[in-house]
Amino acid sequence: MAKDKIIYFCQECGHETAQWMGKCPECFSWNSLIEKKISKNNGLKSTDTKPISAESLTEIPISNASRISSGIREIDILMGGGIVPGAITLIGGEPGIGKSTLLLQIAGRMASLNQKVLYISAEESLSQLKMRSIRIGVDSKDLFIVSSGEMEKIIPVIKDLNPSLLIFDSIQAVYTSDLPSSPGSITQVRETTSIIVNHAKNHNIPVIITGHVTKDGSLAGPKTLEHMVDTVLYFEGSRDKEIRIVRSVKNRFGNVNEIGVFIMGEKGLKEVNDPASLFLKEISSSGPGSAVTAALEGNRVIIAEIQALVTEGNYGNISRTIDGVDPSSVLRLKAVIERFAGLQIADKEIFVNVTGGLKIFEPAVDLTVAMAIASSFKNIPLNKDSIFLGEISLLGELKRISQPVKRIQQAKRLGLKTVILPKANQNDCKKMTGIELVFIDSLDTAFNLVFTQ
Ligand code: TYD
Ligand code: MG
After folding, report:
1. How much is the pLDDT for 407?
2. Parallel/antiparallel/unpaired status of strands 165-169 and 117-121
3. Does 96 contact ligand 1 (Cβ within 6 A)?
4. Residue 320: CB partners within 8 Å, gap ≥ 6?
5. CA 352 and chain centroid, separation
6. Could you tell me which of 156, 155, 178 has the C-alpha nearest to residue 38?
7. Which of 218, 232, 364, 396 has its CA 20 to 30 A from that of 91?
């Protein structure tokens, strides 16, 4: 009979070795390696003796896997048109941001459509869940709750109930008693996820799992989870504000970078009907340092405000002063502004953020960021009815942006008056009327146009 193989793996980082060591060679933790028996066939017992064969691509039937609506429009959009049976979705976010609330709402909506939903509440007791459900108005006989984190006890319940949707809240609180490490450790998170994935794929049940994210933005420990699941959604926004953005960062069944926008209210999360204008309402003052942009978030254009503050002094780490846009692009813009537009800002401290907790990671907002910085530095406010768009090269030239017409249409719909954008986009915008378009070719021209009037 084949002999079992023994491997050692680190409970901190998941690194595997063939030999026991006192210190993990990957993450340098002491005494973190533990033994694991792997059976000769890798733990995968084949019950099926039929040989497999290759299929011609043309002959493969189109899967008509019907998607199931989550009952929440924004979530259906994020998932690419509804929940795919057998698909695993991971929803990550900081503790307290609203993951459990969202899942209970999805569970409630689906259960009210006579779909059996099983909610594994590994962190909260039945009565805590009941209290939340009363608060958000969820009640259905088809919604079943288990308050346990032990996989060995949970699996028989899943088999027995055979739900149409399975929810694990959270993956850091479920564990298998096969492993000695504590819940939330890399090894537990990986192992329990793989049990869940196998079960979901074998029984064609869609599963949503939640995962807590640490401050540095990675899923606490289980960053490794991302490649094991089909879809990854992250909550953005801050806990103390009411706007919540859920973004798709991976989707095997739809687009990525799509966002869903919600407001956390008294009765849970409410979908925002017109997200494009939501952040426009947030535009606060008419003071210096504020510039408006039309950012592409997945398929949507969102009108948002970028704020900058230029001060004396040195607050250190740039990642602490820049929020909502790419910190390295701000560093680059700072150098370009100094060199090609003559503003002496090299020794200044720069703070940047996006109002409403939105994150914008596209180069088309380079000009918006640069205008906000210049406006703060010069202490001259910008016109709130103007939008600035353009990627800025290292030589201070304005480069083409993608989908200018879509952005301009949204700006026009929301009553903005002027769009300042790259000359390279002029041909794309020939048919646009009813809004003033100003085409420019460099950062220097933009500053001259706006600050010398
Ligand atoms: P929760 O869903 O428990 O967060 P997570 O599962 O991501 O840790 O959200 C908890 C927060 O949301 C808590 O601060 C209370 C707030 N909240 C509301 O404002 N309204 C509501 O209807 C609910 C249920 C929660
Ligand atoms: Mg929770």
Report:
1. 96
2. parallel
3. yes
4. none
5. 20
6. 178
7. 364
User: What mean pLDDT is predicted for residues 193-221?
Assistant: 82
Q: Give the separation between CA 324 and CA 327, rounded to whole angstroms.
A: 9
Question: 357: buried, middle or exposed (CB in 10 Å: 19+, 13-18, 0-12)?
Answer: buried
* Ligand nearest to the backbone CA of 269: 1
Token couple for 89: 């979705």
pLDDT tens-place string over residues 82-129: 999 899 999 998 888 999 999 999 999 999 988 999 999 999 999 999
The 3-class SS string of 86-138 reads CCEEEEEECCCCCHHHHHHHHHHHHHHCCCCEEEEECCCCHHHHHHHHHHHCC
> 312 C-alpha vs ligand 2 centroid, how far in Å?
41
- Ligand 1 atom closest to the Cα of residue 93 is 7
Q: What is the pLDDT of residue 315?
A: 65
The CATH code of the domain at 278-451 is 3.30.230.10
Question: Is any atom of ligand 1 closer than 6 Å to the C-beta of 97?
Answer: yes
The third-level CATH classification (topology) of the domain covering 68-273 is: Rossmann fold (3.40.50)
CB atoms under 10 Å from CB of 451, counted, come to 14
Cβ contacts of 368 within 8 Å, gap of 6 or more: 291, 292, 293, 306, 387, 388, 389
Query: Probe ligand 1: pick from 94, 123, 213, 264, max atoms within 8 Å of CB?
Result: 264
pLDDT at site 284: 62
CA 88 / ligand 2 centre spacing (Å)? 18
Q: Whose CA is nearest to atom 2 of ligand 1?
A: 98
The predicted-structure confidence for 320-338, as pLDDT tens digits, reads as follows 789 899 999 999 999 999 9
